[in-house]
Amino acid sequence: MSLSRLEKDIIVFLQGNKEDSFSVEQLSQHFNYRGTKNYKKLIKALAFLERIGEIQLTSEGHFKAFSSNEEVIGVYRANEKGFGFVSHEEGESDFFVPRGKNGGAMEGDTVRVRIVKHVNPTTGKGSEAQVLEVIDRKVSQLVGEFYGFNQEERETTGYVGYIKPQGEFPDETKIFIRPDGIHPANHTICIVEIAEYPDSHKPNEMVGLVTKEIGHKDAPGVDILAVLFQFGIPHEFPKEVVKESEAVEQTIKSEEIQGRKDLRDQLIITIDGADAKDLDDAISLEKISDKEYQLGVHIADVSHYVRPDTAIDREAYERGTSVYLTDRVVPMLPQRLSNGICSLNPHEDRLSLTCEMVINNQGQVIKHRIFKSVIHSSYRMTYSDVNAILDGDPTLRQDYQEIVPMLEDMAELHDILYQMRRHRGALDFDAPEAKILVDEKGHPTEIVLRERFTSERLIESFMLAANETVAKDYLAKQLPFIYRIHEQPDSNKIDRFAEFISSFGVILRGNTEDMAPRALQEALKQVKGEDYEQAVSTMMLRSMQQAKYSDEAAGHFGLAAEDYTHFTSPIRRYPDLIVHRLISQYLLGNPSNKEISKLEDQLPAIATHASKMERRAVDAERETDALKKAEYMMDKVGESFWGTISSVTSFGIFVALPNTVEGLVSIQNLDDDYYHFNPEHMLLIGERTHKIFRIGQRVKIEVGNVSIEDRQIDFKLIEAEAVEGIDPKIIQSSTKNKKKNKSNRQNKSNKANPKMGKNLAGKKISAKGNFKKAKRTKKKKY
Is the distance from CB of 555 to CB of 471 less than 8 angstroms? Predict the structure, then answer.
């Protein structure tokens, strides 16, 4: 490729100033390219050099050198298709690592990569990178199914067989098993210690030895155990933890009550699911007047029993959270605590931490107190019974006549709190949640939807109020604390979401740089009751940041709350336990500067670790659900069902059934036409027939193939309801014009204004060298 003299000069200049970036005005001054004609030549040269990857455009709209030797350290995330991504800096797009360029990296490894192709950051896509070196391996062992070699294969290879690992690995990945470990039977699920990792020459091969047999793959419960081992989730407590827990008394001594507010004469109840064993929250309510309610949220004082630096505390920290997998719970704390002395069981004295709030009829907390208490729960209520009572069930209302008035007041206060949150813009996704029912062998027998009615929602409202009140209290006191934060969404993701929902006739209003929750709430309201409501809700969720824990209060976007924490579940969440520990310390008096300094050093690491463990639990729960849903669909092959398109991709459409089971209709099986993928509106459009497949569209499918090992369900399309309100010719024409305009911008300056050009990403380049997104020259409105 031959470059002009100017283009070569630009490269030489920027390479000689690699640490700096320059505006167009600065470059025009340096090269003395002034005047309309020369300025246009400079803009054209810069646009061309950016397009071919010789220079790059910064997020500030300046140019700087691009070196093929630019290297970055990050964390690798694998995909089972062989490609991957590298996360390198919070808020920045991940680098894309093509298949064959991962250098033997595996999920979670810390890697050094070289950027081989830059992508403009405004696209929201990551630049392309190649892994040069694996700096640190995340895992030293894997879980998988064993396949034994015959005698001849053992003698030839020196291995006893191989294991196909669970997780994000290509199908061809194998771990060859050395003979110096356990020799499992065929199809046994095993733990393998890795001796030799993949490399660039053998990216799908490892060597290891079996250190533990979990059990035969078809044995009851082995599939769930395999998932626990896969994600490194401990499911047995160490001996020292068990020993400590056995020493914990199961009754309260009189000296433990001293200094606590005695609430045992108050009418206090718990409301939980019928199968709940760890009851960590109880509630009380008194209607003070027509305009005020006194709400008491009483939380088990776990910090009284789990002291810092004990074996129980260290194990709880490592686990981070309880994990719920289909038919079992892997608790954060030993059952002697979680189901025993810490659980707010009825008719038992229990130590608690109380947040008492006076709430007006606008849903505002006008007074509050946080204190240590002792309670005696009078009733252990279930969600179903409370819902029936509120619906007027005469038998239950008679049986629980003492608390019926309080329950009715609770429903009334919940509605006030809900309307308050809704008014300030809180988002209510309310996605359908599946409950997978299994038999005694763990085989799924039915998938039902969990329905949330008034009792479930009122408990949520009360816990939200307590969490927010506690966060506000200690933020105002400027004391070290743990917060639950949900940050402002990335504007590029919101831009793409806005474009996506525009195909449904929904306009997202507001500035996407600083989107208000209320604007997103309004969008959800517009799709309420539509076939595509859940799909739009899911796409909105994907546009959000992940909630996490932090020692800094950054607000909670989804709740439209300025301050928020997790205070209400210390039995199953370690951050809540830390919040209780901090409150207990602060209730004794103001901490010294030394104590504050120590906490400020400790809390960031605790918050980061808790966020990681939460993510691990979510991944394990998702993996287990996918496993059980695939198993449930095994005997449904050949059957047909109606469902809704939940996602559209370049390789096919995903269809969700009413029970939340999701499967793929591959584009290869849409053989009646050649389909083009429209990424802006997430559509598949037939080239000849102009048939459209879109999110929210009702389709009838047949279950084609099910793979439990891959957690994959394949559907075949039988019929689809017609899509109305979209002209495929207009969509195709618009897409072609966008591509044409993009191509023109790569080679031409803006003829309408000789002092104004456009770069490859559609950014305007002014004569003053200021780069602004063309679509953000004004505050963006949708």
Answer: no
Task: For residue 163, give Cα distances in angstroms to 134, 154, 155.
Answer: 23, 14, 18
Which residues of the chain have a pLDDT value below 70? 1-2, 52-53, 59, 66-69, 90-91, 119-126, 725, 727-782
What's the rounded Cα separation, in Å, for the pair 410 and 19?
Answer: 62
Closest to 459 in 3D by CA, of 375, 553, 533, 387: 387
Beta bridge partners of 114: 71, 130
Cβ atoms of residues 523 and 427 within 8 Å: no
pLDDT digits 0-9 by tens, 628-659: 999 999 999 999 999 999 989 888 999 999 99
Strand order in the sheet with 763-765: 757-758, 763-765, 771-773
How are beta strands 698-707 and 692-694 bridged, if at all?
unpaired
Q: Where are the alpha helices (DSSP H) in 325-365?
A: 335
Amino acid at the residue 103: G
Task: Summarize pLDDT for 583-626 with one digit per residue, the tens.
Answer: 999 999 989 999 999 999 999 999 999 999 999 999 999 999 99
Q: Which amino acid is at 363?
A: G
Contact (Cβ atoms closer than 8 angstroms) between residue 192 and residue 141:
yes
| Contact of 555 with 486, CB cutoff 8 Å | yes
Type of residue numbered 530: E
**Helix, strand and coil in the chain, % to nearest 5:** 35, 25, 40
Cα 161 to Cα 760: distance, rounded to the nearest angstrom: 53
Query: Distance (Å, rounded) from C-alpha 593 to C-alpha 603?
Result: 15
> Are 178 and 208 in contact, with CB atoms under 8 Å apart?
yes
CA-derived radius of gyration, the chain:
30
Task: Map tokens 């083009």 to a residue.
Answer: 676
Q: Are 416 and 359 in contact (CB under 8 A)?
A: yes
Q: How far is CA 356 from CA 171, 282, 466, 473, 539, in A?
A: 56, 12, 8, 12, 38
Instruction: Pull the structure tokens for residue 765.
Output: 């380049």
Task: Indicate if the alpha-carbon torsion angle 147, 152, 157, 160 is positive or negative.
Answer: positive
What the block records as the tokens of 545 is 């940041």
Rounded distance, CA 633 to CA 635, Å? 6
Task: Tell me the CA distances in angstroms from 451 to 360, 411, 711, one per residue in order.
Answer: 29, 17, 26
Which of these, 691, 687, 705, lies nearest to 645 by C-alpha position?
691
Is the sign of the CA dihedral 543, 549, 550, 553 positive or negative? positive
> Distance between terminal CA atoms of the chain?
43
The backbone region for 700, taken as left when phi is positive above 0, alpha when psi lies in -120 to 50, beta otherwise, is beta
Q: How many CA atoms lie within 13 A of 310 on its CB side?
A: 17
Residue 393 — φ and ψ, nearest 5°?
A: -60, 115
8-state DSSP, 562: S
- Containing H/E element for 135? strand 128-136
> What is the sign of the dihedral through the CA atoms of 6, 11, 12 and 13?
positive
281-287/433-438 β-pairing: unpaired
Tokens of residue 28, six digits: 């025009």
Return d(Cα 485, Cα 634) in angstroms, integer: 40
CB 351 within 8 A of CB 260: yes
> Is 393 in a helix, a strand, or coil?
coil
Asked if 698 and 642 touch (Cβ cutoff 8 Å), the reply is yes
Q: How far apart are CA 40 and CA 47, in angstroms?
A: 11
- Distance from C-alpha of 671 to C-alpha of 683, rounded to nearest angstrom: 17
Q: Order of strands across the sheet with 675-678?
A: 675-678, 683-686, 692-694
3-state secondary structure of 480: coil
Cβ contacts of 153 within 8 Å, gap of 6 or more: 159
Percent of the chain with pLDDT over 70: 90
Give the residue among 765, 759, 766 at the shortest CA–CA distance from 121.
759
- Locate tokens 């009078």: which residue? 378
The amino acid that residue 781 corresponds to is K
C-alpha span between 15 and 170 (Å, rounded): 40
